[in-house]
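During the second year of the project, the team shifted from modelling isolated chains to modelling whole assemblies. The rationale, set out in the original proposal, was that interfaces cannot be judged from single-chain predictions alone. As a representative example for this report, we include one of the complexes processed in the last quarter. Its constituent sequences, exactly as entered into the pipeline, are reproduced here:
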Amino acid sequence: MTDLFIAPARAGVFPDDEVWTVSELNETVRALVQDNLPPFWIRGEVNELRAYASGHWYFSLKDADAKVRCCMWKQANARVGKPPSDGTEIYAQVRSDFYPARGEFQLIVLTLLPTAALGQHMLELERVKQALAADGLFDPARKRPLPRYAGTIALVTSPDGAALRDLVTVARRRWPAARLLLVPTRVQGAEAEGELVRALGLVNRLEQAELCIVGRGGGSRDDLAVFNSEAVCRAMAQVRVPTISAVGHETDVSLCDFVADYRAPTPSAAMEAAVADVREVTAAVDQLAARLAGSLTLRTRLARERLARAGDRMQCAVESVVSTRRTLIEKLAVQLDALSPLRVLERGYAVARDADGRVLRRRADFRPGAPFRLRVADGDVGARVEPA
Amino acid sequence: MSLAEELERLEAIVRQLEADDVDLDAALALFEEGVRRLRVAREQLGAAEAKVQAVLEDAGGSLRLGDLDV
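Output from the structure prediction step:
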């Protein structure tokens, strides 16, 4: 008997590299299992659950005819709370695994939902997610940039909710030029889905709207459920202006958030993102005003020197205003206006130009006998150089 | 013109004037346009208070805006 097994090996029928070790086999099976089965949902009855001191749970899931080993790591089961008792039917989101040390197939449980009702809710969520993803609604390439200075903003929310108050408060503080158009809708309850879809459609008929914020304040999982509705998500994707979603608190995430062009954690944060800060923009405008003045300084150096010689006090005042970058643009604009070359002309200076409108700056530009035009404060005057 | 467009134009004017290759007449015209746009921008920034209105749809399907106290 022994000879029968040894002899062929000696003859080279089983060269070493074609004989697998158990470890090689199990590693190969593990790779096959892990690489080829994406995470999925499974339903079953919990059996033989043991919660170890390490915090990990080991149990079986079974139905009438079959059974599979499951493992749920401490990090994952921390969200579940108490381990489900034997016999409980659960929904579990799992990935496949193979444990080489024992040659056992097992499931790594990622999410566990102890009641069938909740499980169904999650399954529906998963279905909607897949359907929207399949149609490209979560595609980052779809995201549109928000306008820099949105003037008119449509608000799709409840007229009675805290969200509206927060949105208005932030808009008034940051951007008083904003115009807010509330498209009222219920945001929870049986009617909410239809009303939200209708309200989002209505936004497309508001020609003035440049941006749309959709949201509500915090609430229970059921309160926020309508923002996971397939119909609402699709209506949101159809809004012709950029959209911001603001549903609940920081930790609440809904499918609408993924469809919107921008996800804000709260309604207040949505308005912060929607409008610029009037103080920042004012500072930017001030800077432009200062630069405008600076550029003109160069152009009118000659005139300014003359004015300075004439002891014009106003000139000094203007320069001090410009150099200290006073924040009141109105004042600055008035002062700038006083710097205008036109004002210089009003003081009795004139600009000489030839027939083509070129400015005649030097003696050599004036040919004896040649006609030219003088620009004075209120218009042009014809003139001619004295013959030599 | 929107505020964004006003500010973009203003920025362009300032850059042109700073470049120093514009003749006096053109510079003059640009400067005056700049001052005008500064005024417009300032007016927009100085608006009193954000206005809030409700969009209402009547039975016939047409839209109207109603005042809202928030």
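Chain A touches chain B through 52 residues (CB under 8 Å). Chain A is about 40% helix and 20% strand.
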